[in-house]
Structure of Precorrin-2 C20-methyltransferase/precorrin-3B C17-methyltransferase:
Amino acid sequence: MTGTLYGVGVGPGDPSLMTVRAVDLVRGADVVAYHCARHGRSNARAIVAQYLGTQVEEQLTYPVTTESTDDYQGALDAFYAEAAARLAAHLDAGRDVVVVAEGDPFFYGSYMHLHKRLADRYPTEVVPGVTSVAAAAAALGRPLVERDEVLTVLPGTLPPDELAARLAATDAAAVMKLGRTFTNVRAALATSGRLDEAHYVERASTASQRTAPLADVDPGSVPYFSVGLVPSRVHADTTPTARAETEAVIAGRAVGEVVVVGLGPGARDRLTPEASAALAAAEDVVGYTTYTARVPVNPRQRVHGSDNKVESERAAFALDLAQGGRRVAVVSSGDPGVFAMASAVVEVAAADYPDVPVRVVPGVSAAQAVAARVGAPLGHDYAMISLSDRLKPWDVVERRLAAVADADMAIALYNPASRSRTWQVEAARDLLLKYRDPSTPVVVGRDVDGPEESVRVVRLADLVPAEVDMRTLLIIGASTSRWPAPGTVYTPRRYG
């Protein structure tokens, strides 16, 4: 069985711009090959140096680097044939070979010459990389093209007259392979009337990056690893207008919006894309301080944290900000519609802020997160009940617990205890034991998705109230719930 040939783009110079796939392949390769001139230095190897260890290295040294020789193409063809044969020996021996290439392997890259000689004989994969053109545009902070503009990529080795004609005919351009061609490129830009628009970027993304108006660059200082850019005309023409329009909208915005965002149970990967977008668009973030601390710091945003016991006041504060034209995100853990801020915001808005738009973005609830840790305890009908008697009397809690227990549904118990509420768990357990078998499984989920996560299953009769705190959620099984193995609970969808 042969090895696999990988053409891996390693980006323009900064190792942190390598893709995850590229890093993984370099680290796991049997052989890493790279091109270099006779001096032996390789930009591609320098980019991946921190990932090299026991891999066999194949240095592919160009015999010539300019077209001054009488048979430049013949010398290169012979070099690529010999290099391909060296790599083929490794592939035939079952070794995976990674050929690293600056930028992207198929964008003016030397890898392509090996690919065309080997890809029909061996398994092959090409991993794209960030091109020097993309890195140069990023360095300038200027879009390459916008709307219906056409981007033309040109090698600086073209004759000056052809370069000038192509530059004059396109909206935006990137000119590669500068170095010795720079004088001709600058002349072509001047002939085409584009010199004043052109920018120069040298060694983009590296510590020695340099940018300048191309007209001001000394030809003697230009290395091969540089790019000439003629960026988007549309961007240049519309930026001042767009900026003025944005400032006018911000200054004159009549009414903003309140979005109530569910952050999920804790882990960042449980945050939905819709929730991420709502947070990114917000100008103000409002919430209980424990929850606002979970929102990544954004210097553009103002964060308003408050105590957990002022929900109505917090809602009114957020709505007042929105009435003044601000875009406000009110954050809740889990799902904002489950014992959280959505109800408070909608209630206050209906009473006092009818003209302020309110939107609710759902999240993964604590009950769902805890249930998922053990299987499917909420697989059939179930109820969610808060044991807190801060917003409703305890006798209401008792009646609802009894009704749900009598109806034989699984129950997710929120807010089972706090520093000031320590007896409700025991009272709830004793009430449920009147309806449930003592061996009924109870899932005790604490700090799920947090650093102190603990999820265990106990019998209802063995539930210890002192081990339940404000960061705990309980799931009480129904009579049909099953506990087939430690840490696994499910409630069948079939009944009876």
Remarks:
- DSSP finds 15 helices and 23 strands in the chain.
- The first strand starts at residue 5 and ends at 9.
- Residues 5-129 form a domain with the Cobalt-precorrin-4 Transmethylase; domain 1 fold (CATH 3.40.1010.10).
- The radius of gyration is 32 Å.
